[in-house]
C-alpha cells in the first residue's frame, strides 16, 4: 500500500503548482544558496535553474527534476515564509532632533537590467542579496521605530540633503524577518544627545543603549540587523555597527588612536570600556578592540551571539580602498557600506579580510552529515571547500622564513630552482627608433584582471603529493620543476599557426621581470601549460601536485563580477556599450556619483586583497624566521592558490600581447601588473587597437567593462617618457607606473 501512496504523492507533486519565479529566487537566496549549488543538487545545468527563476520568461521544470525542485522550494518556504505586507508605520523624526528638516519618505528607483557577462551565461542577479522591501515590520520595537528620510540632521548644526539617486536607489532592507533592518547600522549622536542608528534604505532607528555592552545587546535583540548566509552550510553574517566619532565619545572610547595604539592595532586591555565588556560577559577576539572588532559570547545551542564593530576614525576604512568614505555623514556612509554588503558581503575587516572571508562564506569548511543509524548528524568536510584544518605547502611554495625551511642556512638565498616565484609583471624596455617617431604613449588596463584569472581555474583543495619525473598534465594543479629556457618567442604558435615575432621586444611569459629563464625553475600549472600552448615540449623533473582539486574560486569570482558590473552600470558604464561609447562613459564616470565610485573601488580592492591574504606574511607578532606565524593556522593560507591565479593572469595577458603583435606588428613598451603601455600615433586606445566596425581582434585586447577586458588607463607623450627616463638615468624605467597622470616624484620600486 505504501508504494501506491508514494506513487500517488509523486503524481500530485509532478503537477503541483510552483511559486512564482520571483519567489523561487527569494527562497533560494534567503537560504544563501547559489545557482550552482541548486543545479548540482538537482543534476541540471546552472542556466536551467536560472531559467526557472527568470521573471521575463519563466521556464517550468519537468519530470523528476520538477518533483525534487518542488520539494526544495517547499522546505525553504517552511524556513522562510513570505513576509506579510506590513502596515505603513508613522513617520516621525527622533524625538530630540529639534530644528531638523521634516523627514521625507525615500523614493525607490527601479534598478537597471542586470548586464550579461562576457561568457554569455545568465548571471545570478547581483541585486539578489539586496533587500526587496523598504517597509519595516509591524512589530518593530518601540525603541526602533523607523524614520524614512532622504534628508535628516547629521551632526550638530549640519544639514545636508541625501544625494540624488542615479540608476539605483540606496539599498533597502531584507525580506528575512530576522534581518528586517538590513546588514548594518551607522551609529551617531546629535547635539541633544539622541543616539541614532542609520540603516540601509533611509531607515533611522532610535538607540536606547547607554553603554557599549548595552549597544551590543541592542544590536542582537532589538535592531534586527544581519545578513543571511551565502551558502547552505554557512553562517549568517553578524550585525555590523559603524561608530561615528560622536558615538565613540558617548560610549567612552577615544576619537582617535595614539601612535602606540595604532601600531598595536587596538586600545589597551585595561581600558575601562574593555573591562566593562568583560563584566557584561562579552569577549573580544585576539585582535582586541581595534578599528575592526568582534564582540561575542560563545555560541549556545547553535545560536551565535556576535557583533562586528567598524570605527572609521581609527582608520578602519583605508582611504586607498574606501576613498573618502570615512568622512561621509552617517546616512551616506550607511548607503555605501550597505550597497557593498548587499552585493559582496557584510564587511568583516579590511577589503582584504573581507575578500578572504567571502571565499569561506561561499565554501564553508564543514556541513552536517546525513543522519546516522541513530538519527544523529555529525560535522563533516564540505565537498569543494578547503576543509577546517590548514595544510603545509610544498617546500618550493613556502615563502622565506616558513617553518618548513628552518633547516636552511641563515643567509641562504633560494634560486628559481628552489622557490616558486609567480608574480605579476614589472617589465619595461627602451623604445625603438620607430616608436620614438610616434607622438603618444597610451596605457590600457585590464579590468579586474586577477578575478578573471581566477574564473574557471582548477586549484588544489588539499595537501600536495611529491612526484619524480612526472608527465605534465595541464589539468592537474601543482608546482612543476621544469626548464623552459628553450622557448623562443621569435617563433611561437598563435592559435594553431606558427608566427614569426621580434622576440627581443617581448617579455618572457615565465618571469615577472620578463627575463628569459636560464635553466630549471618552479612554475605553477598555468605557466607550464602556456609553454605547451606556444608550441614547445616540456619535461618536468619533479612536481608537487594536488590530486584533490576543484574550481574553488568560481563562486567568489561570479559574486564579485556581478557586484562590479552592477555598480559600474549604476555609474553609467554598461556592458553593451560600443568602444567609443565605453571610453566616453568611463571618462568622468566617478563624478556622477562619488559614493557609488567608492563601492566600485572597494570591490576591486576585495579581489586583490583577498588573493593576497592567501599568502599573508608575519605582521609583527614578535616573529622570527623559522617560527610559525598566526596566518599559518588558517586553512585559507594557501600560497599555491595565489600563485596559480597570478600565473594564469600573467599568461592571459601575454597571450593577448602576442596575438596583438602577430596581427599589428606593435609591441608593448612597458607592463606593470595589469597595465600595458604602447606607443601610438594618437592619444586614444582606438588609435592602436585593431577595431573594424566596432569588432576587436579575436583573442586580443577588447575595450569593455567586463573582467578581462580593458579600459583606458592614461596617455602621455613620447617626449614625456624619454624626458623621465633621461632625468632618472633609467632607460628601462617602467613608464606604466606613471602613465595615469604623468607625475613622477621619484623612482618607485613598486613595494
Strand-helix topology:
Layout: H1 2-15, H2 21-30, H3 35-42, H4 46-52, H5 63-79, E1 184-189, E2 195-198, E3 204-206, H6 212-221, E4 240-243, H7 245-250, H8 259-264, H9 272-279, E5 283-284, E6 292-300, E7 303-310, H10 319-322, H11 330-343, H12 351-362, E8 366-368, E9 379-381, E10 426-428, H13 433-436, E11 440-446, H14 449-454, E12 459-460, E13 465-468, E14 478-483, E15 491-494, E16 497-500, E17 520-524, H15 525-533, E18 542-545, E19 549-550, H16 554-570, H17 579-586, H18 589-592, H19 594-613, H20 639-664, E20 670-672, E21 675-680, E22 710-717, H21 718-727
Parallel strand pairs: 1-4, 4-7
Antiparallel strand pairs: 1-2, 2-3, 5-6, 6-7, 8-9, 10-20, 11-21, 11-22, 12-19, 13-18, 14-17, 14-18, 15-16, 20-21
Helix pairs in contact: 3-4, 11-19, 12-19, 15-20, 16-19
Task: Please mark out the parts with pLDDT under 50 across 5 or more consecutive residues, or reply none.
Answer: 85-168
Number of strands: 22
Described by strand count, sense and barrel closure, the largest sheet is:
7 strands, mixed
Mean pLDDT: 86
Percent of sequence in beta strands:
5-15%
Q: Name the overall outline.
A: globular
Helicity range of the residues? 25-40%
- Helix/strand/pairing class, anyone? alpha+beta
How far apart, in Å, are the first and last alpha carbons? 74 Å
**How large is the radius of gyration?**
28 Å
Structure description:
By secondary structure, this protein is an alpha+beta fold. It is 29% helix and 13% strand. The protein is built from 21 helices and 22 strands. The strands form 6 sheets. A 7-stranded mixed beta sheet has the order 3-2-1-4-7-6-5. Strands 10-20-21-11-22 form a 5-stranded antiparallel beta sheet. Strand 20 (670-672) and strand 21 (675-680) form a beta hairpin. Helix 15 (525-533) packs parallel to helix 20 (639-664). The longest helix is centred in the C-terminal third of the chain and has 26 residues, at 639-664.
Amino acid at each position: 500500500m505504501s508504494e501506491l501512496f508514494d506513487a500517488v504523492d509523486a503524481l500530485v507533486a509532478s503537477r503541483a503548482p510552483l511559486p512564482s519565479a520571483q519567489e523561487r529566487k527569494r527562497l533560494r537566496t534567503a537560504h544563501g544558496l547559489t545557482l550552482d549549488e541548486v543545479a548540482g543538487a538537482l543534476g541540471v545545468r546552472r542556466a536551467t535553474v536560472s531559467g526557472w527563476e527568470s521573471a521575463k520568461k519563466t521556464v517550468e521544470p519537468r519530470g523528476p527534476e520538477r518533483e525534487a525542485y518542488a520539494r526544495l522550494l517547499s522546505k525553504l518556504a517552511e524556513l522562510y515564509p513570505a513576509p506579510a505586507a506590513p502596515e505603513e508605520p508613522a513617520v516621525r523624526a527622533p524625538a530630540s532632533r529639534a530644528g531638523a528638516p521634516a523627514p521625507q519618505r525615500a523614493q525607490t528607483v527601479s534598478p537597471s537590467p542586470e548586464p550579461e557577462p562576457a561568457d554569455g551565461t545568465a548571471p545570478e542577479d547581483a541585486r539578489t542579496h539586496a533587500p526587496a522591501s523598504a517597509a519595516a515590520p509591524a512589530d518593530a520595537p518601540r525603541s526602533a521605530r523607523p524614520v524614512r528620510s532622504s534628508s535628516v540632521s547629521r551632526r550638530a548644526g549640519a544639514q545636508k540633503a541625501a544625494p540624488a539617486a542615479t540608476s539605483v536607489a540606496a539599498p533597502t532592507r531584507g525580506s528575512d524577518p530576522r534581518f528586517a533592518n538590513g546588514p548594518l547600522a551607522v551609529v551617531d549622536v546629535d547635539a541633544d544627545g539622541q543616539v541614532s542608528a542609520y540603516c540601509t534604505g533611509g531607515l533611522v532607528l532610535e538607540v536606547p543603549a547607554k553603554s557599549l555592552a548595552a549597544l551590543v545587546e541592542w544590536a542582537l535583540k532589538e535592531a534586527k540587523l544581519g545578513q543571511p548566509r551565502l551558502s547552505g552550510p554557512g553562517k549568517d553574517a553578524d550585525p555590523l555597527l559603524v561608530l561615528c566619532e560622536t558615538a565613540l565619545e558617548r560610549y567612552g572610547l577615544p576619537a582617535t588612536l595614539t601612535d602606540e595604539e595604532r601600531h598595536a592595532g587596538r586600545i589597551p586591555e585595561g581600558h575601562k570600556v574593555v573591562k566593562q565588556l568583560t563584566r557584561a560577559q562579552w569577549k573580544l577576539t585576539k585582535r582586541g578592540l581595534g578599528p575592526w572588532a568582534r564582540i561575542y559570547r560563545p555560541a549556545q545551542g547553535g545560536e551565535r551571539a556576535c557583533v562586528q564593530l567598524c570605527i572609521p576614525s581609527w582608520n578602519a576604512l583605508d582611504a586607498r580602498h574606501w576613498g573618502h568614505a570615512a568622512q561621509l555623514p552617517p546616512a551616506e556612509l550607511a548607503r555605501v557600506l550597505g550597497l557593498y554588503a548587499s552585493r559582496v558581503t557584510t564587511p568583516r575587516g579590511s577589503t582584504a579580510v573581507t575578500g578572504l572571508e567571502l571565499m569561506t562564506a561561499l565554501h564553508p569548511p564543514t556541513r552536517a552529515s546525513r543522519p546516522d543509524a541513530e538519527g544523529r548528524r555529525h560535522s563533516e568536510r564540505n565537498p569543494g571547500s578547503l576543509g577546517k584544518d590548514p595544510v603545509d605547502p610544498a617546500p618550493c611554495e613556502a615563502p622565506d622564513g616558513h617553518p618548513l625551511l628552518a633547516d636552511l642556512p641563515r643567509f641562504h638565498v633560494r634560486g628559481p630552482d628552489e622557490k616558486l616565484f609567480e608574480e605579476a609583471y614589472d617589465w619595461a624596455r627602451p623604445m625603438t627608433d620607430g616608436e620614438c617617431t610616434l607622438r603618444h604613449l597610451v596605457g590600457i588596463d585590464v579590468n579586474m584582471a586577477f578575478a578573471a584569472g581566477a574564473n574557471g581555474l582548477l586549484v588544489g583543495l588539499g595537501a600536495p603529493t611529491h612526484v619524480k619525473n612526472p608527465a605534465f598534465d595541464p589539468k592537474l594543479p601543482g608546482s612543476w620543476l621544469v626548464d623552459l629556457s628553450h622557448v623562443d618567442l621569435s617563433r611561437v604558435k598563435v592559435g594553431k599557426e606558427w608566427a614569426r615575432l621580434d622576440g627581443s621586444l617581448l617579455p618572457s611569459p615565465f618571469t615577472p621581470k620578463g627575463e628569459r629563464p636560464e635553466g630549471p625553475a618552479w612554475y605553477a600549472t598555468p605557466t607550464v601549460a602556456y609553454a605547451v600552448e606556444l608550441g614547445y615540449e616540456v619535461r618536468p623533473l619533479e612536481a608537487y601536485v594536488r590530486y584533490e582539486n576543484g574550481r574553488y574560486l568560481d563562486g567568489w569570482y561570479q559574486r564579485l563580477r556581478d557586484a562590479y558590473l552592477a555598480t559600474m552600470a549604476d555609474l553609467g558604464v554598461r556592458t553593451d556599450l560600443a568602444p567609443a561609447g565605453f571610453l566616453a562613459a568611463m571618462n568622468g564616470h566617478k563624478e556622477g556619483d562619488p559614493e557609488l565610485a567608492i563601492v566600485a573601488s572597494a570591490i576591486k580592492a576585495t579581489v586583490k586583497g583577498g588573493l593576497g591574504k592567501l599568502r599573508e606574511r608575519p605582521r609583527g607578532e614578535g616573529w622570527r624566521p623559522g617560527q610559525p606565524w598566526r596566518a599559518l593556522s588558517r586553512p585559507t593560507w594557501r600560497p599555491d592558490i595565489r600563485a596559480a591565479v597570478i600565473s594564469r593572469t600573467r599568461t592571459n595577458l601575454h597571450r593577448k600581447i602576442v596575438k596583438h603583435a602577430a596581427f599589428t606588428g606593435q609591441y608593448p613598451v612597458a607592463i606593470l601588473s595589469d597595465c600595458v603601455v604602447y606607443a601610438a600615433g594618437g592619444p586614444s586606445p582606438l588609435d592602436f587597437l585593431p577595431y573594424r566596425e566596432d569588432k576587436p581582434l579575436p583573442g586580443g585586447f577588447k575595450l569593455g567593462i567586463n573582467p578581462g577586458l580593458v579600459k583606458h588607463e592614461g596617455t602621455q607623450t613620447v617626449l614625456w617618457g624619454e624626458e623621465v627616463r633621461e632625468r632618472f638615468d633609467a632607460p628601462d624605467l617602467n613608464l606604466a607606473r606613471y602613465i595615469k597622470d604623468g607625475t613622477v616624484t621619484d623612482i618607485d620600486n613598486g613595494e
